[in-house]
Amino acid sequence: MQTSFISATVLLILITDPLGNIPLFISALKQVKPERRKKVVYRECLIAFLVLLTFMFFGRNFLDVMHLTDQSMQVAGGVILFLIALKMIFPSEGGSVFGSDKMHGEPFIVPIAIPLIAGPSAMATVLLMSTREPSRMLEWIGALTICMLVTTVVFLFSGRLQKLLGEQAITALERLMGLVLTAISIEMLLGGVASYIRQFH
Length: 201
Description:
This protein is an all-alpha fold. The chain has eight helices and no strands.
């Protein structure tokens, strides 16, 4: 499956799911003073960006060290995206992926940068993109940059967006994103299987 710059950007935005993460993000910042929140948003988004960029640049080395093939990574990425998509469509009770909504003090790296933004699915996706087509690294960096800018803007205006859209609209958008992500994950999974089978023909 040939991935375009636009589809890669959309995929990363769907995976990081900034709109769906608004309630969790607001909960994480409850103990933070309002005047500090902008700085926290910028810091956490920058950390997440650097983490994903590291996975993007050193993904090939990681696969070589672990003796993993591109096909196995593609299938694994498809499975992870499928599970994430299912959680977006059918969220568990409580809705928090961290096990608890109670945050104490100012969050640093965990849980906002990791795993809220740079979660396992986002790490697997950027690693997969860079290892499959390393010649297009500039495009992947651009797609990741746009994704992080969108996430930053959404988090900066999270309070207003929650009031404007309401809980039901945000939930509906997350379900829709989950549905699209399900189709993408199946396509990725089938592409990995097909590529693996072609090796024996």
